[in-house]
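User: Here's a chain of 522 residues. Predict its fold as tokens.
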Amino acid sequence: MQTTSHFCTAPIAAPPAQAVSQQRGTPLPKSRRSLELFPEWLSTSRKPLEREEATPEALWQRFLTLIRDNVPPQVFKTWFEPLRFERWENNTLTVQVPSQFFCEWLEEHYYGLLQRALVQVFGAHARLQYNVMLERGEDVHQRTVRLPALQTPPPQQALPLQTTPPHILISPINPRFTFERFICGASNRLAYTAARSVAEQPGQTRFNPLLIYGGIGLGKTHLVQAVHNYLGQRRLPLRLVYVSSEYFTTGYITALQQHHAHEFTAFYTSADVLIIDDIQFLAGKEKTQQHFFHIFNTLYQAGKQLIFTSDKPPRELADVDERLISRFQWGLVAEIQPPEYELRLEILRRKSADEGLELPEDVLQYLAQHITSNIRELEGCLIHLLARATLDRCEITLELAHQALAQMGQAALRPTSPQQAARALSPEHILTAVADYYGLDPSVLTGKSRKREAAQARHLAMYLLRKYLALPFKTIGQLFGGRDHTTALHACENIERELPRSSALRQALSHLEQRLGEPIRL
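Assistant: Prediction complete.
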């Protein structure tokens, strides 16, 4: 057994500040150095333990209880149940995790949650250390290797910051979100190329503003933070500001209440590169939009780079000022679509290689064929599979992959052989089959055409995705240009209603079932 120690960040102050300024080149005040993602203390209905009277094991159980009370059950089962308590000494909690990849995933996605629980249970000066436990066959051997802490690189030289008003919230930057770690494919190539261009020449390309839109977990935040990290590494004399629209809105409201609106405006208009994530959350906030409109104009007229992300294209943003929608389209609007099969397969290969593991090709194909909605779910399933194989001390096989999908709530066809896995249905197969039958391009099905034939083909494709792959209605809607779950639900209901009275529809369904083959139910 190989043991790798991995340290979390420096001692935690309680309660932490709400955000960390990622303005490059200037040390932060001590009170603002904590990376904080959760503004409230963790909720729990359990009676608190007295730290002085509790054993380390009891404190560990309390730690897990706090986590369990603040995440969905499946998240806890996948990411926190595999953790094993090792020891508590010298204000350091040491926890065993199945792999280094598992450890990195925890810090990347649940950093704030772990920090909060650690402070509440073990105290303000506690820190977290991971031991990575890897099985190497029957020859069990243990050794310790010190890994560098996963934390933001030290600040580089840059222009001095203007005095930052204490109420301004700047979202944390993940140092692992780089262009090198972003896996590019047909579905995200335009957004990737545009992001690299503005990173190399901020404010000097035609991509200003740059707005990247797409569904959840497709890599929008990764790309825009990669721009920030790239510019930070180049040590250019630039002021960089990255913030979520929620933090921007909260900061603006606080500034108004404290009569600091001028300082708020001065801070944002001093940026050379302004990145705002999830711009759609400005919807309905009229006063915030008005103030943002003036900040936008000031920066744009000064030739500064503006970068935004959204879950929808500008024209589909409801309750957003038309003047803003127009300005969002002045530069480039780039879509990130759900990853195609080849990209999903490459992501799985890259992530498993990062772990030092070589998964069987049939397993990789099986996972890539059945997890289609977004990259986050794809990586999550791989972690779940690696954790199961490590904890159960078994090989990663096609059957284990099937079980992992089932446990994560992913309905899929049970493969009986590598050959069948290679033929396993995917959404792309179903869309192509339906489009071929109706003589349409697959893009018509996922597009906005309302022609009768296109609409019927789209409804039938949604129905088959539900029947063969048992995909959630929300996932089906996302596959069809980001439509909502009610559209997919009504499409399936419409097909079921029309089948008894439409011979043409029954003929189409019969033909497609022969082409696709009968689904093997779990």
